[in-house]
Write a structure and sequence with these properties.
81 residues; 3 helices
Length: 81
């Protein structure tokens, strides 16, 4: 599913500028991304800064591995490969 984005300050058919906070496509994208990030972290896939608070033997991912985990989660949520 490809999101359709429109400028935050778009002009409606009436010629009046729409409110900048009415960009539902962006809000939907942000909400979905937040869910993916939270689910990824809650599943234990985190970068080094968080596990160090737990202890020296805690497992962690590199930045690239973490971004790949986010990408996998995003693809799963959006139903793409």
């Amino acid at each position: 599913m490809k999101p359709s984005f429109r400028p935050a300050h778009s002009t409606s058919k009436s010629g009046k500028a729409s409110h900048p906070n009415c960009n539902t496509a962006l809000a939907d994208f942000a909400t979905a991304m937040e869910v993916v990030c939270v689910e990824t972290v809650e599943s234990g896939q985190v970068t080094k800064d968080l596990p160090l608070l737990i202890g020296p033997d805690a497992q962690w991912l590199t930045t690239e591995e973490f971004l790949a985990a986010l990408d996998d989660g995003w693809k799963a949520k959006m139903g793409s490969s």
